[in-house]
Batch of 2 targets.
Target 1
Amino acid sequence: MESFIYVEPSEEGVEPITKQIGSKIRRIAAELRGPLKGICIGTQLEGKETELNGFMDELIMVEVPSGAETNTEIISKILVDVDTEIISKILVDVAGQNGASMLFFGATYQGMELAPAVGWRLGIPVITNCAAFEWDGSQANVQRPIQGGQLLVSLGVSVERGAVITVMKGAWQEDEISPDEVNPVSITRLPWKDSWAAEKTEVIGISEAGLEGEEDITKAEILVSVGRGLGDPENLPIMKELAEKLGGMLSCSRPVVDLGWLPAGRQVGISGRTVAPVIYLAMGISGQSNHLAGINPSGMIIAVNIDPRAPIFNVADYGIEENILEFIPELLEVIKQKRTS
Amino acid sequence: MRVAVCCKGVPIEPTLESVQVVDGDIRFKDTDLYINEWDAYSLEAALSLKSSYGAETIALTLGPLRAQEVLHIALAKGIDQVLRIDGETSRPELIASGLIPVLEEIKPDLTLVGVQSEDWMGGEVGIYLAQALNVGLAFAVVEICEVKDTNVRVKREIGGGKKAELVLQLPAILCVQSGIQPLRYVSMMKRQKARNIPIKSWGKLDTEGARQMISGMMAYEPSEVSPPSEEGHAEMIMGDRSEKAEKLLEIISKAI
């Protein structure tokens, strides 16, 4: 058995989810999990390898050539970073080499796409969005959310032949490891193979939604974030007023952007921004896992929702069961009274 | 051009009591099914291809008889043909196994699948289909920019507010993200009219055959469905509305 963690590319270095997974899996007996290896595509971690000391035994860095060195059209490193056809071929090749493998991914966009592709090709179980995970002998016991996070399903997974697991951001705690006090991660460089080149898809560009005059929500100390509970875009002014009165900014969950009520630059979650305010006020947001992935680093989460079963209450520090459209005018009134007294 | 769109019927507000673990699967009893939100967006994308390119559109679902409602909605919105594979499973690899033979037979140029389902919340089915059919895949597609004879150009989200533009050879699978097109309201009258159209049945999902074909992938069993643990639940602020607002403001003031 070998265990692999897919080390997702990040401009900042190592994504927290990689360390969260490493922290959990390294505590599993080595005779069960085998060597714990990270795989990263390209050289994004060049010079930052020590960040992974203690979180894994070995880091496999797959060398990605630029343009002329491959038999394909120009493949720049940044395109390979997002070309999941290429990445899944590499992962299947590497993980399928020495018998059974456990593969761990963050439940990110890349992880959501890569995990089922790799699992199908290796013919092993794929369990997505794992929260709880215990590995005991030939079986792993896993819990994952269903029904928008309102319920959890427990699964017994036979791991004798390996399995693919995606892990919800923040579900597993990151250990505090001083890189100097543990054995350094060993580096293996894997040369590029032409058989990994994309055949069916070609990434031709990457773009990022500009702020277009909007505030940068990642810089806010307080975020007033609105969800479907807003009901109607006509209710946006009181949310803006609340954000202003608290000295914060307005953000939102995905449905609010899909409905065209706020621009994409204000979206928090797996497909939007990851935010780390001192206080995150979730107003009328149910708390789907895709949204929770983007608020995990927040200092304090306060949720107001009319539905006491809303999953947001399972992660919030404080909760209020109220219709936001009735509660926020009251809150604004209290703020006004405090200021005048 | 032929476009298939896979639509899942998902339960309306199931309670813990209505969710059961049966024969290594999760079933929903006594609940009506409505169209999975992401598949509703896929339907809109298919209809947009119909109006822009004259595409022939086929909606399919794998589900029990009550999942036909999903196909009635598809018909009411303007999808040309619908068919149902009879079966009931929450396991994504089994759903994919049921869809594969149908897609192999109808040979769509594009197959649209919602990026995930509201009940299982995994997003595996479209990816399994692409692997099994050995075709190109784009995940979290937010725009179908252009369809040519041999390829399709799309924009997909890659997280963190970024998008990638891809060209895929046809045939291809597109996992459609919410918001790709506005969802259009379909009137009760149209829906009622669609309910009079007979739904073609493809036959039964061969669960045992699939279990043998993909036995390695099926090496897991659900054992229990439970509510989330109370541990970690928010401290609820109680009182009348005014008291709650006062307490909330106090918490915010202390934290900043």
Note: Confidence is low (pLDDT under 50) at residues 68-74 of chain A.
Target 2
Amino acid sequence: MNNIVLRGLLSLLGLFGLWQLAVVGLHIPAYLLPAPLQVFASAWLNKTLLLQELWPTFLEVLIGLGASIIWGMMVAIAMGLFRPVRFWLLPLIIASQAMPTFAFAPLLILWLGYGIGSKIAIIMVVLFFPITAAFYEGIKQVPTVWLDLAFLAGASRWRTMRYISLPAALPALASGLKVAAVWAPMAAVIGEWVGASQGLGFLLLNAQTRLDMPLMFATLLVLVGFSLLLFYIIEHSLKRMIPWQKQD
Amino acid sequence: MKRISLFILLMIQSFSVQGLTKVNLALDWYINPDHAPILIAEQQGYFKAQGLQVTLLSPVQSTESAQLVATGQADLAIDYQPSLLMEMAAGLPLIWVGTLVNHPLNCVAVLKDSSIQTLRDLKGHSIGVSASPSSELLLNTMLDYQHVSLGEVKQIGMQMDLSQALLAKKVDAIEGMMRNVEPVQLQSMGYATRLFFPEDNGVPTYDELVIVANKNKVNRAVIKRFNAALAEAVIYLKAHPESSWQQIAGAYPSEMAPSAQITSANKAIWLATIGYFSANPGQLNAVYYNRFMNFMWKKGLLKQPISIEQYQGFDTIIGHS
């Protein structure tokens, strides 16, 4: 863990160094690409604003991610248990992922309003697939020998799912959750970008419209930091929940 | 059935807060200096004095504000006159009920230090165009007026990065800027621009920002009170440009005054916009209206002409819905 943080910090530092050199050396104007020092200065100057706009985005992500996990797991289990569900739902799930969220998001906002509801719906549309697909793959790939053993022991379909397939599929679910954790803040921002008056997405839009590029990049930094934090929290808690999973 | 619905309507109205009539107004974009009279009417209590409780909705895209009114989700919306005419010709149940800005704001801009002194100099150059049919019409008319054929310029469609594309010299000119917004903002950042106006180049003058209602649900008494409050707000704005800005920056900090740079740009835009607001929001100039509507019709943007009576919703017989 410490090692990963250290490596991450070092590679970020290197990136910022190159970026600063490029902007200063090539005389890139701030409206195209602000220098990292400008961005940090803006972040410090606007720290209250950034924290204040992080809060609504944080809430949307928390609720949206939670709802996606519950919903995604339920659908994956249903698909594992019942063949008709699998048969009818799988094409729909794939179709839902083929739709460009940016085209679909404005409609969701028109249907559900400008509040938190539409943002949660957009997060669920985006996250549903990685979670459901990963978990369902995990359920599908349980070794047949285990299932045969359960069958010979006279276990019901539900008990086989509960005691054999679900635990066996947890590592697969974990990789889906990690993808979801990184995508969640981005999905929230899409929702705020197309219709909101608060949140990091709205701040991004406002800064972009008024050409405040240092603030726009500062907002992006906060967003990236939030995604990373979410990723590590999820990874850390998953390791505790699935101690038998291979460590990398 | 009609009696029952009338009864329910009266019940709803009598239950509204403090006897105020509720009005949902869909803006064309999030709150910005173009909405000054509405914001001031709210903050100064002019709406309340007229018995109105106005709720602002900020839709996703400017085209959606009109859709919200057409589908009955909002009572009023901010729209652009060229868009409104096209929406009406396409059959949306909308009518004009007021004017916020009775003047074109659209313009073509080049950087002041560029070699382009007149529109004719655009020959052989590239123009960034905001993607909307009316923008395209205005630009083509202006070029045509200056005897520049469409083949002699390169038009590039873009969404939002017009100013950046101009500054970065990715295009030589841009169309679709609002003269009270982007050029003012660029000026405040130290970049001077040269502007060309549609009304000087063959486009009849028109109302950039108008207020629309649903023709089947319009409440004329409410509209009259709404426009009266706006007129009062415009008088206040013209008398107190500076203090009205302070007031609104304080009331809407996350839209108007989040960071130092956005705040100073918005203040400059606020001061530059006040002069464009219509002093008589409820007034429609028939000569200007007919000239502009005929222009759009002849250019093929309207399927059929829209009479001034239709535009105001006075063509439908009352009781025949």
Note: The mean pLDDT of chain A is 88.
